[in-house]
């Protein structure tokens, strides 16, 4: 009986094998990697100072820039009343006789590369996160006539690629 079952299974296998067809084809596979960039920034805080503080005041913001490998990019900045590379901290609306306090932005601690609405930091994407520090500088003696209170500004950062 076992021999009969084995013979029957072999016959089915031969019939099954004989009825199978063979065919093949190929396909074309593509991928396009698009240029892309992302930018994030921490807030910049010049902290607390008195009007007697006559030294230069600095603060910084940490930026993360991630661009597709090989993608050239440029970082620029502006705010509502930024002019000629000078930004302004504005006094709170409840402060009387208070004036704006000027500051500038730089991409380096030595203040050789200023960030403005037209001039900025330029580099090329690596495909991974590139960390960059943005430096804010208030010139010496800028607070000597400042009214006590809170000052702020909103800066728009642009990453062009």
UniProtKB/TrEMBL annotation:
Keyword vocabulary terms for this entry: Capsid protein, Signal, Virion
Signal peptide: 1-21
InterPro entries (UniProt xref): Spore_coat_component, Spore_coat_U/FanG
Domain Spore coat protein U/FanG: 25-156
PANTHER family: EXPORTED PROTEIN, PROTEIN U-RELATED
Name of the protein described by the UniProt record: Spore coat protein U-like protein
Source organism: Mangrovibacter plantisponsor
